[in-house]
Description:
The structure holds 3 protein chains of 3 kinds. Chain A is α/β, with parallel strands linked by helices. Chain A folds into 2 domains: 2-173, Rossmann fold (3-Layer(aba) Sandwich), CATH 3.40.50.620; 195-320, 3-Layer(aba) Sandwich (Rossmann fold), CATH 3.40.50. Helices cover 32% and strands 29% of the residues of chain A. Chain A is built from 10 helices and 17 strands. Chain A has helices at 14-27, 47-53, 69-83, 94-107, 195-199, 213-226, 234-238, 269-275, 291-294, 304-320, and strands spanning 2-8, 29-30, 34-41, 58-63, 87-91, 110-115, 117-120, 125-131, 136-142, 147-151, 167-173, 183-189, 202-206, 229-232, 259-263, 280-284, 298-300. In chain A, 61% of the residues are buried. Chain B is α/β, with parallel strands linked by helices. In chain B, helix 3 (103-118) packs across helix 4. The longest helix of chain B has 19 residues, at 40-58. Chain B has helices at 40-58, 76-84, 103-118, 137-145, 200-205, 223-229, 254-272; strands at 2-7, 9-11, 36-38, 64-70, 89-94, 122-126, 149-159, 163-170, 173-180, 183-187, 212-215, 232-239, 247-248. A 9-stranded mixed β-sheet of chain B has the order 9-8-7-10-6-1-4-5-11, sandwiched between helices. Chain B has a two-stranded antiparallel sheet with strand order 2-3. Chain C has helices at residues 5-16, 25-30, 38-42, 60-73, 126-135, 152-157, 165-168, 171-174, 203-206, 241-253, 266-273, 292-307, 317-325, 331-344, 357-374, 411-429, 448-452, 456-466, and strands at 21-22, 53-56, 77-80, 98-101, 108-112, 117-121, 138-139, 175-181, 187-190, 215-222, 224-225, 232-238, 260-264, 282-288, 313-315, 346-355, 378-385, 388-389, 392-402. In chain C, strands 12, 13, 14, 15, 16, 17, 18 and 19 form an 8-stranded antiparallel β-sheet that branches. Chain C starts with a helix and ends in a 14-residue tail after the last helix. The chains are: A alpha/beta, B alpha/beta, C alpha+beta.
Amino acid sequence: MRFAAILDGTIGTAPQQARALGDFLREGLIGDLVGETLVVYHDERDKQRLVELSPTRDVRLIKTPARRPDRMVEILTAVARGEGIPLFLFAGGSAGTELATRLACRTNGAVLTDALSIEVGPERLLCRKNVYSNHMVGRFELSARPRCVTIDACWKDGRSPTSLEHHVLSDTDETGGIGTTPFEDLELVDPPSTGDLAESRFLVVAGYGAGNREGVERIAEAARRMGASFGVSRPVAMNAWAAMDRLIGVSGTRTAPALCIVVGASGAPALHWGIEKAAFIVAIDLDERAPIVRNADAAVLDDGVVIVEELAEIIAAEVSR
Amino acid sequence: MRILVCFKVTPDFEALREADWVAGAAHGVETRYVRRILNCFDESALEMALRLSDTLAGRGVTVGLGALSVGGREAEPYLKTLHALGYERAARVHSEASLDFAPAVIAALIAGYVRRVDHSDLVMLGCRSGPGDSGTVPFLVAETLGWPCLTQVIEVEPLPDDRVRVACMVDDGILRVTLRLPCVLAVGNAVVSHLRVPTLTDRLARRNKRIDVFRAADLGVDIAAELRRETCVLAGLEGIHRARQGVIIGGATPREKARVLFDSHLKSMIEKL
Amino acid sequence: MHLSREAIVEGVQRIVGPEDVITDEEVLRESSHDRFRLYEDVHGVYTQPIPAAVAMARSTQQVAEVLTFANEHGINVVPRTGRTATEGGLETAVADSIVLDGSAMNQIIEIDTYNMQATCQCGVPLQVLEDRLREQGCTTGHSPQSKPVAQMGGLVATRSIGQFSTLYGGIEDMVVGLEAVFPDGTVTRIKNVPRRAAGPDIRHVIIGNEGALCYITEVTVKLFPYLPQNNVFLGYTLESMKTGFEILREVMVNGYRPSVARVYDPADAAFHFSHFAEEDQCVLLFMAEGPAGIAKATAEGIEAIVARHQECRKVDSEFIATWFNDLNWGPDKIAQEREEIRQTSNICRTTEISSDWGCINEIYENALRRVVNEIPDITMAGGHSSHSYINGTNMYFVYFYNVVDCEPEEEATKYHTPINRIICEETLLLGGSIVHHHGLGKARTPWVKDEYGSSYYILETLKRAFDPNGIMNKGTIIPK
């Protein structure tokens, strides 16, 4: 089956998209598939870099105006209709969700978001994704073409993409005749640094067991000293003990660090979703029966703030040696 | 400005026992016995709409607030509460069939309600809801109505000339943008997350306000046909196995435990990072 | 006699060691009040005098030495363990108090399944004890909603009661022996015997003293077999609380001992049971447990009683079983509640009273009517009965209000205290008790003399005898 992976170079997350798509193509796509990457860009200076990031050998470049998802949908619709591509893959996130959903609408196709895997068989195409707030995995059959699928934003295991010899098949300019945009006075502000969370290799997460804002701040400081990123569970964010953009979990950021230390959080599914891809999880909690303890690789049953500060000292000492 | 907020009343999944998460049933998990709650993103949207209305009232502009839910009678207590809070229109669309994994149907019903009944020009709803959490309904509604749509909205302010200034969390930052109505705004992790509470006096005063109940046919939608046409169908459920080694680290003091943890498990890992 | 804050800190440091004395400002502020001042707490407002120090005791000896030191110098001591108090019992009502925290005394000393007794220090969380017991097929039978957080010392000091009390009783029925330290440093130990008639039951000087007479350092409680496999749940909807109370009475008077017997009025039922009860319906629910034959017979007996009342309609037991599973207040719920209060300025309060069967419905109706009519900004007012006896029951009033045009420190004056006053007045009028199980704390002490009448003589004499210098939790039980 043919597929087209979309690499949206008009927004700042192209490297993350590329890595996620690359990992997914290698491990999440099961069946006989061959495809290409449609690289969408708005600035000529980005072309080279975007081509090099592409997760497939074959690449087609499409130039569009910046931040015009409406235009991108029109272009992709034309591609879908014109070439009968049966499967479009997008990296997960707001942009991917919009594109996949609108594209499926216009082509009478099927849409599914946050896929964990796609299995292509002779008769049908099955996607797996988390449902019921990460309590279960659902298997969905997508029966209409094209299937427009966004992949789980967390397809990263830290491997650098295998370097491919890219082959640019075409480079079309779709910047003309764009019509008016419904959006005015766009102002993009860099996030206070959530980027570090999604990408992080070493993450410390503080839960409500930290006790109060001071406890959370102490954990954050220990994380900083260890060279780790810092995230929080929903109760912590909701109590304004930390900024909302530090939120990890179903309603926040999903991460896939090599090492994740969870401090004072019971590890309910909603949080666990945010960290379950971690290669190694350490739980620090007073409650032996908290789910996080049995869902971790190693656990320390003690006051999280104290332990994590001790650990920070040890790590800082090791690093300076 | 005429605002419609769509909300969903869902089972409280966190109140189910581990044993209730039974895999294998293609029709879903048994959630009949657990209490209902308001989807948290929808709750934000409901409160944000009230605040928009308050702001505009302060400028001498009256906004008509409407609320809509798709489902059974579990939505009625919430609709009554919304009446008591000043929502002038409160309606639900009745569906016998479960629409848990049918975002296309939900979207068709919402769009049908907007076009045929409500004629609102700003539709607000949560960016996603369980059990499916597809996040597609806002865009499906926008496609059907031919309107622009923003998701992960965290702030909305009214501007003159039927425009709104919206802040939303996009993949690469926070985007602020001015948008002309009509449009669909899908609310994400807004700071405003709890709906205000009406007094008993408020409830008494608006007790006789009607809750409209619509059938799909009233809105031009044939649910059975839509479900047959559904292109993304749940084929089965599996459990999630999260259990890991769970090795408990021993030690007499916190320092000792931290040292054992580091030496036994973390040292080589951290060296590689 | 009056020491400076620094001298108090030094004095306590000499006893428990500097590591176990906390003088951090935020901790001291948080330690100056309890859930009674939740609204202030959520807004970061602290109106109570800030204590001089929080001292973590690690042994009975340390408790004795701190109390002796405080007694010598007239320093107010507030005993605490799990910190789940709701009536102001933990407020440091006097400047420069010592908060004496026993949560580090968290050892389970013995579990004796032959003699069906468990002994633990005051800082053992009930959840921890209960989990350990269940592994051995036993239970304390004690399950207050605060179970995930509350600790044994405080549970005994407040005469707490749990969800299954109709079968197992309140804490006073569960305590066997105790160790408690008195203000002059005397350590007293009451031994573990099943029953005795060796003079008055002095355990009752200690159980429920709310830290106003002594410091509880160790508790022995009875054990019961843990037989959850035999649990039977029953649920009904019905039209009136009057019928609900009547049915509860019949169940008790006919000799049945379900572990749970509750009736919720429509307002309270709406919060919990809107997925199976209509807007104007009450909900009646029961749980029977124990050996299989007993659980079965209890359930059958209750069903027969309910069947005699036409207005009751049975609901699927699964609704009740599912609801029960998620009743307790862990950290997540506490956190969410705080944020909700902060954003909406809407807060939930409770006042629980008790009376005989003849008056309870009248008290319920009169109190509610007055609350709704006399108090502004009420968003919900209702309640449920949850602990029944052969000779009466309790009524747990639940009410929410918006705090409007009101500083956090005025919230109690404007809303909470007037509501408490109404409920207490209506209860006292008909001869009931103004506090069923939360403790008098400081919140309901204005009515303690009315509550006791002539027997107040006994209470105040106890206070004079055991705490002549008035250092134990000033303002609690006995008004300042």
